[in-house]
Amino acid sequence: MSSIVAVFAFLLASVAVQGLEEQLPQVALEALMELNMDYSETLEWNEDLVEEALKNSKSPGQAEADLKIAVDQKISSTKKPIALRMITMFKRNLDRKREEIRALGDGAQFGCNGVINKTTPKSSVFALCLYKRKST
Asked: Which UniProt keywords apply (predicted)?
């Protein structure tokens, strides 16, 4: 009986945490896509990589990619739109990885996604962009 209670308590805690975590809104993904295109016009958006980035944002694992760029940052309540926040947070990392992005070559694919976690006093954002060279 006590093991059933323990399992039930674990399930309730899991559901509560999941309710406090949400996927980045579409406007934030579009901002990340546009920002990346500023670094290499030959990049191609890939929905499979978008899903892989989301999966790895929720439970970090070993995403298969030639290049990974991630941001994990606390955010405060403000009226600044999430798309502008994503650009501000990601731009510095993209500047540092500019040559690596270009070295992926023509037709390289990428996808970005992430989560907003509201379980702490200050919310946090984890966003991840995955890049793969074009398959030959």
From this structure: Signal
Q: Is the dihedral of CA 17, 20, 26, 31 positive or negative?
A: negative
Nearest to 118 by CA among 83, 74, 88: 74
Which phi-psi region, left, alpha or beta, contains residue 14 (left: φ > 0; alpha: ψ -120 to 50)?
alpha
Does CATH place domain 22-132 in 3.40.33.10?
A: yes
pTM: 0.79
Tell me how far apart the alpha carbons of residues 108 and 131 are, in angstroms, rounded to a whole number: 7
Q: What are the tens digits of pLDDT across the range 76-100?
A: 776 778 788 888 889 999 999 999 9
Q: Which residues pair with 88 in a beta bridge?
A: none
Tell me the CA distances in angstroms from 11 to 15, 21, 29, 67, 82, one per residue in order.
6, 16, 30, 35, 31
Q: What is the mean pLDDT of residues 26-55?
A: 93
Residues in the chain: 136
Beta bridge partners of 131: 67, 110
Q: Which residues have CB under 8 Å from 69's CB, separation 6+?
A: 90, 93, 94, 97, 128, 129, 131
